[in-house]
Batch of 2 targets.
Target 1
Amino acid sequence: MSDIIKLLPDAVANQIAAGEVIQRPASAIKELVENAIDAGADNIRLIVKDAGRTLIQVIDNGSGMSDTDARISFERHATSKISNANDLFTIRTMGFRGEALASICAIAHVEMKTRRETDTLGTHIINEGSAIKSQELCACEKGTSIAVKNLFFNVPARRNFLKSDQVELRHINDEFLRVALSHPDIAFTYFHNGSEMYHLPKSNLKKRIVACFGNPYNDKLVSIEHVSDMVSFSGFISKPEAARKTRGEQFFFTNRRFMKHNYLNHAVFNAYDELIKKDTFPSFFIFIEIDPEQIDVNIHPTKTEIKFQDERLIYSFLNATVKKALGMHNVLPSLDFTTDTNFDVTPRQGGVYVPPPEMKISPNFNPFDTGRDTSPKHTLPNERSNKDNWQKLYDELARTADPVLPDEPSSFGNSNSVTSLFETNDRPGDDVKMLLLHNRFVAAQVKSGMMLVDKQAALERILFEKYLLMLDGKGNASQQLLFPHSVEFSPADAELITELNEELRSLGFELLPTGSNSFDVIGTPPDLQDDKLQHTFEKMLENFKSNRISLKLGRNENMAAAFSRQVAAKQTKPLVQEEMNGLIDSLFACENPYYTPYGKSTVCIIKTDDIENLFKLQQ
Ligand code: ADP
Ligand code: MG
């Protein structure tokens, strides 16, 4: 029998390979524009006709090519970007596989003009279906112009596979925006069928975002920043009030390459969880800089997924960075009890952008700090005395017995009833009497109706923020117990206690191992006067373990949430007027007063209208 394996002719092999790289006009545009960027251009013009079916032209002012390089650039695996396999691990350019031009040529008519700065004349190449038809000298601008005509002329199956012009244009637009956003330092223009779609002068990222998505973005963005040895983040995220029902603009760029990453998307969404309504989405434009060795190098040109070596760590860094940005940039409202007591709410007008209310927050403000006055300058005298009230309340809290166990955690990020607060910033006036209902809710009159604060939820939030500060190393006083209190756990819990030793110390606990599963507690947080330490530890571990599974919290947050829930549950003593004031003051001094760390609302407002409706005659 004769041999049956044949080598495919180059042209056919190229056509097949081209199918992988060039699926539609947008992919050809991406490749050509990326080549222009790699060539160091700072001005790139894109001209498209009939959604790319008839013409795609990219003109750049980059390095240009010599006539030999220009000729070779159409060959498969022709690349100037890597020369050995090791280079693969440090690649920073957009392309490196030397496939794009060869692929485009295999399925289109391609005309290139290119000239280096040092050459007087450039070169002009005409290429059809992988074959060079002509090459001659020509006068042209410095840089490279590549025109791709009649895409898929020799692959009817592909041509027929293309969608409507509208759909193909949308793909082109997406690719264009991805590359324009990641390179604000490059000027871009984009024409389709003779009309200018985008004209983007060189600028910075914020201006580029606004130029791409319109002026309203000017007021919607908060910058983010995180620099560490392992990974850096920069860019912008949208303010919570700008969240939209549709998945808005969400862009990740890793080393300036656009990527999709569901897991990291979650890191961003999760940071907003308590701040935006369910089913709404923030926008973000986040740049990740990481050593290329930390990412999977096997990046296919059409793939937008990137694999990081340590995704969990990147997740938590990113999550923390976004949270910090939301807190730092005064996005979280803090209410000022002494001044603004008469707060007018103007009804929203349709279509008019209403700026969010003026907000003040100090990331360093610690309502528990009663020692040296390190409080920030804007702390008002009244806040000071309220803090003292709070301290009393807090002292009381620790003395009480019989823990009341809280409900099961509600889903993280539930958002009922917060809208009214975000929209009105309504709060009780200074002299308003507060009422304690069923030892559970603090009720107070506010301008729009009645405010109800869930006492235990509020405490959880206040304590949570306090413990987070402590876990961050900001104060970890401990009181030595006169008599060590011995506690004993199951082997698994004992191991967890040992694992959490450092966090427990930050909170003020001091434990000495006395057996394989037993410890002597010799120090506790000063505000915890607890004779049921065994029970407190058990509950805390239980919370910690279930948080880890259901909430995927960071370790410190988890610890702070677990402990605050446990301590808040112990507060069963009825509050007096002063204490209620203190509670509400401390709550609104929190970074995020509206939810417990578990996502339960701490406060809601019942509007006067709604109360009135309760008394209406039933039909
Ligand atoms: P890759 O970008 O993966 O190297 P391409 O097929 O896209 O492969 O391009 C092949 C080579 O052609 C590039 O490595 C580069 O040297 C050269 N080249 C392509 N486009 C341009 C351009 N616009 N300006 C200068 N050189 C270019
Ligand atoms: Mg390329």
Target 2
Amino acid sequence: MTKEITELLPGLHYVGVNDRTTHRFEALWSLPYGVSYNSYLLTDEKVALIDGMEEGFAGTYFERLDEVLGGRPVDYLIVNHMEPDHSGVIGQLRQRYPGLQIVGNAKTLEMLRGFYGITDNCLTVKDGDTLSLGSCTLRFYLTPMVHWPETMMTYWEELKVLFSGDAFGSFGALNGGIVDEQLELAPFWDEMRRYYACIVSKFGRPVQQALKKLAGVEIELLCPTHGPVWREHIADVVSLYDRMSRHEGEPGVVVAYGSMYGHTARMAEEIVRELAARGVKPIVVHNLSVSDPSMVLRDVHKYRALVVGSPTYNGELFPEVAALLDRLASRGVAPRIFAGFGGMTWAGATPRRWKEFCERSAWELCTPAVEFRQGYNRSYRELCASLAENVVEKLRG
Ligand code: FEO
């Protein structure tokens, strides 16, 4: 009989569930490849469940727990993170295992009360505290704001396993395999970036603090709450997280535009050609009326320069363009090189808005912005070329 790949290590079982049904994570972010809600069961003299489950998947989840436990009760639920995609089954867990103790820090317990009205059978832990399950020792590291104030990580000291919560997680359901070496990883690197850009990017500084806190912690198995469990590529994952949380941009340009009747799109095409003619690579182009906002955020987060185009619409930016700038400003993406272009019919709003955005976000604005009147035509080619040149100069600088 083949070995159960859900047994990650002797006594450590993966009991997570794949979600290939939900369209939007947090009702916002698309899930073209699904998502996994990872949960881990540690069976020792005591049994501990580490991270719970989204409520809608309780049925499958409890079936998995029953298979592994064979009638044993769960003694502890370690709550690394209270967001309902991991805590939604807490009430049901308490009913199934009446002796269950919920383990969390002071902020976790405050949220337990607020979300679920739970105040009893809780064990409060502080940063650095340990809990013995028999032969396994769990140590808790508080890592606030990765992604909520109560977030913490749990470390199984003897086998050097870090249960990291949302940190190091990614979108994408797990297609059969669970650990990195069992999976085709190519889609997960992009999905990790997209997860980070959409969910965690506002909290770059806390992520950096968490990485510093964990710098001396040896990790042989990295178990996040979403996406693959990492064994072979732990150093790559930690390094990517370090770069992403420093908002480090890679060489490359994103060109994102809105266009009602195709004129701004034509100017975008011209600018893209001029960038390519100057050796810029990669260039990623998004029509904001068509592209998935989470993919746009991922790409802007990844590359060092952003060129945005917009028609003037009701005296303002085209709504999809304004939405992108708002998403970026609210996430505090570190300074990028920015250039703007646009079109107007009788009064232009775009140059003013580019300036305001760059001032508000401390981004480096390439001037002058390029704006055509009524229709785009070839007479604007020189302006497009100089905009591309300005971007390239700043990229080189
Ligand atoms: Fe997967 Fe912040 O919850």
